[in-house]
Amino acid sequence: MKGSRNIDGSEVSEAFIKQLAGYGLTTAEILYRLPDHPGLLQSYIWQDYDVAPDFPTLIRFLTFWQRKLDGPLHSVRVGHSKLIRPAEIKSCNGEFRLH
């Protein structure tokens, strides 16, 4: 998804557009076993914008991990936050300039 332009020509970030579409910042702590030492666990922190409760972006990443990477997954702990909530966005009908 590319950023788009505002009326004044400035660019709107891709992250902001995703937030308006219902995405929230998602952080996952992934514990996995080391391939050479299966008794040891390693931690990996993943962060991206995703949609709760299905988390399609995270699921796609974990599917990739299981198919392509050697370290088998042990557990995944997920935190999610909607950064923009409906109560925080207010439309305005005018513009006021102070000198």
Model description:
- The strands form two sheets. This protein has a three-stranded antiparallel beta sheet with strand order 4-3-5. The chain has a two-stranded antiparallel sheet with strand order 1-2.
- It has one domain.
- The mean pLDDT is 84.
- Helix content is 20%, strand content 33%.
- It has helices at 14-20, 56-68; strands spanning 4-5, 11-12, 24-33, 41-50, 73-81.
- It has 99 residues and is of the alpha+beta class.
- The radius of gyration is 19 Å and the shape is elongated.
Key structural traits:
single chain; about 100 residues; alpha+beta; 3-stranded antiparallel beta sheet; 5 strands; elongated
Short overview:
The chain is of the alpha+beta class and 99 residues long. Helix content is 20%, strand content 33%. The protein has one domain.
Topology:
Elements: E1 4-5, E2 11-12, H1 14-20, E3 24-33, E4 41-50, H2 56-68, E5 73-81
Antiparallel strand pairs: 1-2, 3-4, 3-5
Tell me the distance between the termini. Answer: 39 Å
Identify the strand order in the major beta sheet: 4-3-5
N-to-C SSE series? EEHEEHE
Choose one word for the global shape: elongated
Number of H- or I-type helical stretches: 2
The overall number of domains is 1
Low-confidence stretches: none
| Oligomer state of the chains in this structure | single chain
What's the story with the biggest beta sheet? 3 strands, antiparallel
Number of E strands: 5
- Rg from alpha-carbon coordinates: 19 Å
The residue fraction in helices comes out at: 10-25%
Q: What portion of the residues fall into strands of 2 or more residues?
A: 25-35%
The pLDDT mean sits at: 84
> Given the helix and strand composition, which structural class is it?
alpha+beta
